[in-house]
Amino acid sequence: MGEPELSRLDRDEILASLRRMRLLQSATPQIVPLTGGVSSLIVRVDDAGHRFCAKSALPKLNVSADWRVPVRRNRAEVDWMRTAAELVPGAVPTILGQDVEGNMFAMAWLDPDRYPVWKHKLLAGEISIETARQIGAAIGHIHSVTSEKPELAAQFDNGEDFEALRLDPYLRETAKRHDDLGKQLSAIAHRTARTRLALIHGDVSPKNILVGPDGPVLLDAECATWGDPAFDLSFCLNHLLLKSVHMPARAMVLLESLAALLEEYLSRVTWEPVAEFEARAAALLAALALARIDGKSPVEYLRSNEQEMVRDTSRALISRPPTRLIDVVTPFKEILA
Ligand SMILES: Nc1ncnc2c1ncn2[C@@H]1O[C@H](COP(=O)(O)OP(=O)(O)OP(=O)(O)O)[C@@H](O)[C@H]1O
Ligand SMILES: [Mg+2]
Q1: What is the C-alpha separation between 67 and 57, in angstroms, rounded?
Q2: What pLDDT tens digit does each residue of the chain (337 aa) get?
Q3: Count of C-beta atoms within a 10 Å radius of residue 107
Q4: Which of 87, 101, 257, 315 is most buried, with most CB under 10 Å away?
């Protein structure tokens, strides 16, 4: 895989931003892009023997109608990281600086050898139930503590972006493609949008979690909003569920991980009766499973027979949604056993 190119303009902008954050000691730091996208750019910076990471809403060349979204998202991400850092030590990279003007922030560099991406580990069959447990505990704790801080609702009033980035591409798109389930899927999207109980991350996916020596580290909080904690839980469980379909030989340990994450999380649901929470999360899990097949952002690793299995199973669940999360998992488990 070739490294993405950094344009001169991007480099100059990044340099200016790093200088405003007073993070540079040398005049000529090395700046290496890790990923390059339309809305954000992640770079590794090597400066006078010091290595760190910076994420920005560049490149400005891609200015378009939705330019405001990436700009706001960078701020939402730093705000979420700072809040999470206070609640779960080590759960996010240390924030080193923020440059609001350049829509950029800098964070500690977490070396991939010591902090591999959870997704890579899962797909390699290296599945740790303890890691899943720690992730359930971290997310549950963040939800539980923030649910008691209503002042965060105004700081993270990002419902519009959440609609555009999560509900529309996943649930509303799937509703359009499955006419007969349109009513149910739209109702789930609507209920998620209007349930505002805690600070959520919005993208709790194995590709956004590093597995460090002291536990999981969460990244990529661009979708953070004051919203429905059930979304974070179901979004994450869904990834484990889909991986179990894709890796039948590892399915049972993946589903055990799912159950461990769920158990840790549910023991932290303090903001509402657990049964009410679970009913929303169960419907969301079924809907998200179908959305990762037929929404705008399908998972890339499922083969066509695996897609069929998820489609059939989740469709049946959406038309008659169970009230417990584990009952969403059971039909998958029975097929995989
Ligand atoms: N602090 C860090 N230290 C080391 N690597 C990092 C750090 N932050 C991010 N990365 C690497 O960059 C990748 C992308 O980060 P992130 O998910 O925040 O960006 P993104 O633009 O949203 O990317 P994507 O669209 O791929 O999710 C991570 O999976 C990780 O490999
Ligand atoms: Mg990411």
Answers
A1: 9
A2: 455 678 887 889 999 999 999 999 999 999 999 875 556 889 999 999 999 999 987 655 455 555 566 788 899 999 999 999 999 999 999 999 999 999 999 999 999 999 999 999 999 999 999 999 999 999 999 999 999 999 999 999 999 999 999 999 999 999 999 999 999 999 999 999 999 999 999 999 999 999 999 999 999 999 999 999 999 999 999 999 999 999 999 999 999 999 999 999 999 999 999 999 999 999 999 999 999 999 999 999 999 999 999 999 999 999 999 999 999 999 999 999 9
A3: 21
A4: 257
Residue intervals of the chain classified under CATH 3.30.200.20 are 8-108
Which residues have beta carbons under 5 A from ligand 2 (an ion)? 208, 220
Cα–Cα distances (Å) from 268 to 139, 142, 233, 255, 281, in that order, read 9, 9, 12, 20, 14
The encoded tokens of residue 77 equal 């991400």
Cβ neighbours for 293, distance < 8 A, ≥ 6 positions apart:
299, 302, 307, 310, 311, 314
Query: 3-class DSSP state for residue 23?
Result: coil
**Residues in the ligand 1 pocket, defined by CB under 6 Å:** 34-35, 37, 40, 42, 53, 55, 93, 107-110, 117, 207-208, 219-220
CB 156 within 8 A of CB 198: no
| Fold classified for 8-108 | Phosphorylase Kinase; domain 1 (3.30.200)
pTM, rounded to two decimals: 0.95
Q: Per this entry, what is the length of the chain?
A: 337
Give how far the C-alpha of residue 318 lies from the chain's centroid of Cα atoms, to the nearest Å.
Answer: 23
Mutation probe of ligand 1 site: the residue of 52, 121, 220, 299 with most atoms within 8 A of C-beta: 220
Which residues of the chain does CATH 3.90.1200.10 include? 118-336
Distance in Å, CA 219 to ligand 1 centroid: 7
CA–CA separation, 134 and 138 (whole Å): 6
CATH architecture of 118-336: Alpha-Beta Complex (3.90)
Using CA atoms, how far apart are residues 250 and 198, in angstroms rounded to an integer?
34
